[in-house]
Amino acid sequence: MADVDQGSVLPIETSPPALDGLNATDTNATDVVNATVAKFVATPEGTALAYGSLVFMALLPIFFGALRSVSCGKSKNSSDMPETITGRDAARFPIIASCTLFGLYLFFKVFSQEYINLLLSMYFFVLGILALSHTMSPFMNRIFPANVPIKQYQLLFTQGSGDTKEEIVNYEFDTKDMICLVISTVVGVWYVLQKHWIANNLFGLAFALNGVELLHLNNVSTGCILLGGLFVYDVFWVFGTNVMVTVAKSFEAPIKLVFPQDLLEQGLGASQFAMLGLGDIVIPGIFIALLLRFDVSLKKDTRTYFYTSFLAYIFGLGLTIWVMHTFKHAQPALLYLVPACIGFPVVVALLKGELTEMFRYEETSPEDPAVKEKTTDTTEAEKKDK
């Protein structure tokens, strides 16, 4: 179990206790402070429940996000179109992430933590509502009563006029989407007012699922560059400096999944959490989703590479928990997840003689000019046939 003063950085960690409302100059209050800051020792049952729940929650957005990533490019809504990550993007990402992390560190050192977190809360409030609404939409389509009338809406934002008019936002939605938006708003208000861990997890799962679904790596080489770069990033900022520790302790936003280790003793009001950062879900998740799309491109009934990488993720996350629990020190999860998620599929591809085919597999962005030109030619040919 990670010590209290080490726990906030991690991918998987124990949160520092809250000391709000205590006056340390009072004798009784001092006793309370001393009792509160004492290292929390979770029961074996509480530990197993917390880490088991985190692993289960991490697998949900990866599995369903990967499945949804196969068909999301066919959507007509611009908001549902995938964002393709190229090799250049992957190489720059660890640098951008490092600058962002260090920038937040400086902000928390210079400015009031309260005001920064207020701005972040409002920002993630809006993003969380949109992400959760998008996540709920397919489930709402299945359970929505067939006898209820459905009205269609369109949010269109353009630039220019006449022949120079250009669409900036073209979002189509209906009554079911409006209901999802209302439910998501209720969760958002709950999170802003209470910062409850269940509301945090609902937003966190939505962010992770949307990330796996909508962020597409264009090929396996790009995935290796991205994961390799973030492998170095994670190890450096966790073991090399206290920057990530400071930011993690100060940053209040649904960018992690949490589960209480004292749930069995305290119920829903529990306050001692094990945590898993969303980056440790989304980054391996988009690579696993890429391998699922590669499986689909092979036009075989099996999903060998998807299931191999999925099992590799479970192995890597389990190894992270075991090492942290054994050595009582916070661990960067990507240190174990990256070798597992890349190594296992590569070994399988070598054994099957498909390694070259795997690395030659290429995804093209729907916004690529070549794709647009090909689509236009196909459409014109279909019109001529008719």
TrEMBL record:
Q: Which PANTHER family match?
A: MINOR HISTOCOMPATIBILITY ANTIGEN H13 (PTHR12174:SF23), SIGNAL PEPTIDE PEPTIDASE (PTHR12174)
Major subcellular site: endoplasmic reticulum
State whether keyword Hydrolase applies.
yes
Q: Which domain of life is it from?
A: Eukaryota
- TM helices/strands, residue ranges: 48-70, 90-108, 114-132, 199-217, 224-248, 268-292, 304-327, 333-351
User: What protein name is recorded for this chain?
Assistant: Minor histocompatibility antigen H13
Q: How does it sit in the membrane?
A: Multi-pass membrane protein
Annotated spans, Disordered? 1-23, 363-386
Organism, scientific name: Umbra pygmaea
Spell out the subcellular localization from the entry.
Endoplasmic reticulum membrane; Membrane
Q: Which GO terms describe its molecular function?
A: hydrolase activity
Q: Which keywords accompany this UniProt record?
A: Endoplasmic reticulum, Hydrolase, Membrane, Transmembrane, Transmembrane helix
Q: Which family does it belong to?
A: Belongs to the peptidase A22B family.
InterPro entries noted in UniProt: Peptidase_A22B_SPP, Preselin/SPP
Looking at the UniProt record for this protein, which Gene Ontology cellular component terms does it annotate, in alphabetical order? endoplasmic reticulum membrane
